[in-house]
Amino acid sequence: MVRLQARPTDADWLAAAARLAARGRPMSRPNPAVGCIIVKDGVVVGRGWTDVGGRPHAEAAALVQAGERARGATAYVTLEPCAHTSPRGPSCADLLVGAKIARVVIGSQDPDPRTAGSGIERLKSAGIETQVLASKEVDASLIGYLTRARYSRPFVTLKLALSLDGCIALANGESQWITGEEARAHVHSRRAMQDAILVGGGTWRADQPRLDVRLPGLENRSPRRIVLTRGVAPDGVTIINQPSQISRFDDLQYLYVEGGAQTAASFLSDDLVDRLEIYRAPIVIGGGKPALGDIGLASLARAHGRWEEVENRQLGSDRFTAYRRTRNEEG
């Protein structure tokens, strides 16, 4: 018996647009990485994502690819089409109207006050059927942009590479290498998705880390380097004196914190970590340097219910696990 595959739903197309959006991160900064797919009669006729430097926008790129086939089609876009014009080009809402799109499905309303609902109203006033459909895939793809809008700071990922007994180095400070090649390559792929990478002053002085991306073809994705210290800024490096100062960087949506123990503890203590990524190697050190310093926890009860596992995979001999900080909309 031949099984007929079900036609993709609106949610499926939005999830696909969210995956497409990842191609724009982080090179789309200061704009969010947005994805757009244009579908007509069940066939993709155009697709696009935010280009380097933020232009062209995803909708503009998808419409160019679709051409005349956009007339009467449905556009699936992860973020509400912009409604404001700029010297860099017309608004995406106007472009969709001009292309005679019949329907637009949006994964997230834009918190930018220049759009914030007016993009949707522009589409509706032109007679375009417009729907906002909640999507966890879309929210995940825009999490840096949405975090900045909500908390006035970038989305923070804390990365830790540990032994089974929770150490990040031998007692003498030796830490290269706790994890294997597969895990280290994965770290570099994660670096390539960040706007900036941060370490503490002690780690900087002791290890002189390059903090770059060393995967073939992704070397140009090396993030901005930041050091948490009260010392003098090294050449090509930005310094901050305390974790809360990450709010100063208006152009950053994604910040990757790599250590050391006190820096990690200070970000956790200030409740600034949104995602925790742990690489655990199958080794026991004993008497080594612990992964974290004091984070000011007063009771075990406060430790529970704060982290939710969202990813788990094997990387060679090492185990990678990621956790999401559970927060309500008010923080």
From TrEMBL:
Its EC number is 3.5.4.26, 1.1.1.193. The keyword Oxidoreductase applies. InterPro entries: CMP_dCMP_dom, Cytidine_deaminase-like, DHFR-like_dom_sf, Eubact_RibD, RibDG_C, Riboflavin_Biosynth_HTPR. Keywords: Hydrolase, Metal-binding, Multifunctional enzyme, NADP, Oxidoreductase, Riboflavin biosynthesis, Zinc. Pfam families: dCMP_cyt_deam_1, RibD_C. SUPFAM superfamilies: Cytidine deaminase-like, Dihydrofolate reductase-like. Binds 1 zinc ion. It catalyses: 5-amino-6-(5-phospho-D-ribitylamino)uracil + NADP(+) = 5-amino-6-(5-phospho-D-ribosylamino)uracil + NADPH + H(+); 2,5-diamino-6-hydroxy-4-(5-phosphoribosylamino)-pyrimidine + H2O + H(+) = 5-amino-6-(5-phospho-D-ribosylamino)uracil + NH4(+). PROSITE patterns: CYT_DCMP_DEAMINASES_2. Pathway: Cofactor biosynthesis; riboflavin biosynthesis; 5-amino-6-(D-ribitylamino)uracil from GTP: step 2/4; Cofactor biosynthesis; riboflavin biosynthesis; 5-amino-6-(D-ribitylamino)uracil from GTP: step 3/4. It comes from the Bacteria. The keyword Zinc applies. One of its GO terms (molecular function) is 5-amino-6-(5-phosphoribosylamino)uracil reductase activity. Residues 8-131 form the CMP/dCMP-type deaminase domain. Gene3D superfamilies: Cytidine Deaminase, domain 2, Dihydrofolate Reductase, subunit A. PANTHER family: 2,5-DIAMINO-6-RIBOSYLAMINO-4(3H)-PYRIMIDINONE 5'-PHOSPHATE REDUCTASE, DIHYDROFOLATE REDUCTASE FAMILY PROTEIN (AFU_ORTHOLOGUE AFUA_8G06820). Converts 2,5-diamino-6-(ribosylamino)-4(3h)-pyrimidinone 5'-phosphate into 5-amino-6-(ribosylamino)-2,4(1h,3h)-pyrimidinedione 5'-phosphate. This is Riboflavin biosynthesis protein RibD.
